[in-house]
Amino acid sequence: MSEITGDLAKAVLEGKKDETMRLVRKGIDSGVDPLDLITRGLTVGLDKVGEKFEEGEYYLPDMMLAAEAMGEAIDFLEPHLKADKETKKDKVVKVVIGTVKGDLHSIGKDIVIMMMKAAGMEIHDLGVDVPSEKFVLAVKENNADILGISALMTTTIQEQKKVIDLLADEGIRDRVKVIVGGAPLSEEWALKVGADAYAADAIVGIKKMKALLGQEG
Ligand code: B12
What we know:
Blueprint (H helix, E strand, L loop, with lengths): L1 H12 L3 H13 L4 H21 L5 H18 L16 E6 L7 H12 L3 E4 L6 H11 L3 E5 L7 H12 L7 E5 L5 H7 L3 E3 L2 H11 L5
Parallel strand pairs: 1-2, 1-3, 3-4, 4-5
Helix pairs in contact: 1-2, 1-3, 2-4, 3-4, 5-9, 6-7
The structure holds cobalamin.
């Protein structure tokens, strides 16, 4: 299994879409957990792409090729994630989620969405480059239990604070639990912007959402 996830990371790093798809299919056919393919394979590759970009060894087109390979693999894997049988059907958790204004990064958010769907939650995905007003409106319109705000760049993370401040201005901050996510963030950041929780990855994210709503265990 470690071999296939290692090969998968390499295929994403090299931006090879066909090879990435061949490996995820092979992984599923041989019974590898789709979550392992994502967290130990695809994500590891994409993280390395980010490092190489930062070091000036990779350029934007390299990052785009890798993102494309990852995106297609994620779409393929989504139906293979097992639905959470223990989810209570009487009270469906409603989630509004999006990536902040000025930020086009969608992959992490989409993985979180995939996991939330598997956990039986009702998702309202606002997409990327979402202005704060749109987040707040969607929380109101859908009477959301949870608001998830993704931001991937140091230049856009302050938008998360704008959204939370606007919730307060509109008098609905107490009606919704806010969870923030994205590679540059930290627990301290979440506290600073007034979020209820921060999650470093999708798995922790789902756990924290359930805990915020008193649903753990
Ligand atoms: C792929 C990628 C792209 C793709 C995005 C494609 C897409 N559809 O998403 C493309 C090529 C379009 C792109 C563009 C750019 N990018 Co880019 N990109 C990346 C890269 C390599 C990977 C991001 C990713 O998808 N990671 C994989 C996912 C699974 O991880 P994740 O996003 O962190 O999500 C996980 C957790 O953070 C968490 N999470 C995330 N969101 C949420 C939300 C909630 C509610 C919860 C609970 C959890 C959660 O759970 C997720 C799953 O476990 C990163 C490097 C990196 N390591 O982050 C750079 C990176 C983010 N990009 C960067 C830059 C600079 C850019 C550009 C400005 C480049 C340019 N010159 O044009 C543009 C910006 C465009 C814009 N306005 O947004 C920089 C940002 C630097 C900074 N200022 O902070 C990075 C860090 C690269 C680098 N090392 O320099 N990028």
